[in-house]
């Protein structure tokens, strides 16, 4: 009898505690909304939107000035909102210490995206260091996730939005936003924080391996619970969708929205003119892009075919001192591999220069394992390069696939396979080259910027309807 009473008491305490916690959080959330109400009204009046239907959407993107594929998604999403929902103001939650003029200027030069600056408000985040992996040398996944919750709380405290959309993969922010504001939450997922591939790859023979395996399984469980707080979830590829569905559940509102690729401009590139026999790798200078093995595969190709005039062009952006050091280490590796004279290292090239490289090189390379999508690969194909991509992730399942029954490129996994693929791509007959270039470009119609804006706009309209339904 006593045990039963104790159990019942414990359950009652937990239930009451949850209700008290929820009531306190919602009260604090109402205060946040009240505090920002006048600020919103002033903005609406200044911009000239219709106050009755005007709303704010907060894009959570702490590294909005990085200049990569994720940032193209962010800014094209903002463009979609400005185009189809003119009474919505976009808030950008970011830790980048840049002015709005500087940030939007870089958006224009890097992505050729021009935005109405009056409808974009940058909300500075002082606690971004909490999501940096360097702050969490141990239990990095958990540390960054907890840090993102604090950062998410800072974001809504600085400016509480009407809709919250995470575009960087910080699923744990959903819990905070829902708990305090209870507003519609959207997510654009580039890559799951943890995946079934990670769980399968872990060797659990040793005690450390077993402990790590248990930790990853537990983290996957709480990651799933956090993700389910989102009202609508967009993924950038079928590979990502399958992993998110397996983790967050197949009953969530989940759809594939391919990331925007600037194919319209690249399709103007003449694919029939002669090209230089060069390889191009468009990728940010980050460890996961696997530049080291790329250099080794190119060195092997040069060793096997010393008569080849091919050069390798590395084109990418850097975010910080760590990325700059990576570029220097790659130069050292190229020296060691005796291919430094055949490689060009290009940092932070403006978009017109990137287009120039895309119009003159013959082969486009992707070397990242399980790349969530691969915008660079689409850009290769639209510009007429023959892609050599990793045999995994988005490049394998969504992009470099047969088009009307004909090949659009090559897949590879190992250093040796890549070297062989370079040789095959560079030694195709002129007729085979042209046929593959035409097939590849035709396959890119699925990934245009207008397609992304249409599909993102459809999801955003559902989020907006939920806001209006509550009012």
Give a written overview of the molecule.
With 471 residues, the protein is of the alpha/beta class. It folds into 2 domains: 15-260 and 450-470, 3-Layer(aba) Sandwich (Rossmann fold), CATH 3.40.50.2000; 263-447, Glycogen Phosphorylase B (Rossmann fold), CATH 3.40.50. It has 17 helices and 13 strands. Strand 4, helix 5 and strand 5 form a beta-alpha-beta unit. The longest helix is centred in the first third of the chain and has 46 residues, at 2-47. The protein is globular.
Rg: 24 Å
CATH class of the largest domain: Alpha Beta
> How many strands, which pairing sense, and closed or not: the largest β-sheet?
7 strands, parallel
CATH topology of the largest domain: Rossmann fold
Superfamily (CATH H level) name of the largest domain: Glycogen Phosphorylase B
Q: Please give the alpha-carbon distance between the first and last residues.
A: 49 Å
Mean pLDDT: 91
EC number: 2.4.1.131
GO cellular component, one term: endoplasmic reticulum membrane
Keywords: Endoplasmic reticulum, Glycosyltransferase, Membrane, Transferase, Transmembrane, Transmembrane helix
Domain ALG11 mannosyltransferase N-terminal: 55-248
């Amino acid at each position: 009898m006593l045990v039963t009473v104790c159990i019942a008491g414990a359950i009652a305490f937990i239930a009451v505690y949850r209700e008290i916690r929820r009531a306190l959080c919602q009260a604090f959330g109402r205060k946040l909304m009240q505090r920002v109400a006048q600020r919103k009204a002033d903005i609406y009046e200044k911009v000239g939107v219709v106050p009755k239907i005007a709303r704010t959407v907060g894009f959570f993107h702490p590294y909005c000035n990085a200049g990569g594929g994720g940032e193209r998604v962010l800014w094209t999403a903002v463009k979609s909102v400005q185009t189809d929902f003119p009474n919505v103001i976009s808030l950008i939650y970011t830790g980048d210490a840049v002015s709005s003029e500087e940030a939007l200027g870089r958006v224009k030069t890097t992505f050729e995206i021009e935005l109405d600056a009056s409808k974009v408000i940058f909300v500075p985040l002082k606690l971004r260091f909490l999501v940096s992996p360097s702050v969490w040398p141990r239990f990095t996944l958990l540390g960054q996730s907890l840090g993102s919750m604090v950062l998410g709380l800072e974001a809504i405290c600085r400016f509480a939005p009407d809709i919250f959309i995470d575009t960087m993969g910080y699923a744990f922010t959903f819990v905070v936003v829902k708990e305090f504001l209870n507003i519609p939450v959207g997510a654009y997922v580039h890559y799951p924080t943890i995946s079934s591939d990670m769980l399968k790859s872990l060797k659990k023979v040793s005690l450390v391996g077993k402990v790590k395996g248990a930790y990853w399984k537990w983290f996957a469980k709480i990651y799933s619970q956090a993700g389910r707080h989102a009202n609508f979830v967009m993924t950038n590829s079928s590979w990502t969708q399958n992993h998110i569905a397996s983790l967050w559940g197949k009953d969530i509102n989940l759809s594939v929205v391919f990331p925007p690729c600037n194919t319209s401009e690249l399709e103007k590139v003449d694919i029939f003119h002669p090209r230089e026999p060069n390889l191009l790798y468009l990728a940010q200078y980050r460890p996961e892009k696997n530049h080291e093995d790329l250099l080794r595969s190119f060195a092997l190709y040069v060793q096997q075919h010393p008569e080849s005039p091919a050069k390798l062009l590395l084109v990418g952006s850097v975010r910080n001192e760590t990325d700059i050091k990576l570029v220097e280490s790659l130069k050292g590796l190229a020296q060691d591999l005796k291919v430094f004279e055949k490689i060009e290292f290009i940092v932070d090239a403006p978009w017109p220069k990137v287009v120039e490289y895309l119009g003159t090189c013959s082969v486009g390379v992707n070397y990242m394992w399980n790349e969530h999508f691969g915008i660079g690969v689409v850009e290769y194909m639209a510009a007429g390069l023959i892609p050599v991509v990793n045999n995994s992730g988005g490049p394998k399942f969504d992009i470099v696939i047969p088009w009307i029954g004909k090949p659009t490129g090559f897949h590879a996994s190992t250093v040796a396979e890549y070297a062989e693929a370079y040789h095959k791509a560079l030694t195709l007959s002129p007729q085979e080259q042209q046929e593959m270039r035409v097939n590849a470009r035709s396959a890119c119609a699925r990934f245009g910027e207008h397609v992304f804006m249409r599909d993102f706009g459809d999801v955003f309209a559902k989020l907006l309807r939920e806001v209006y339904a509550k009012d």
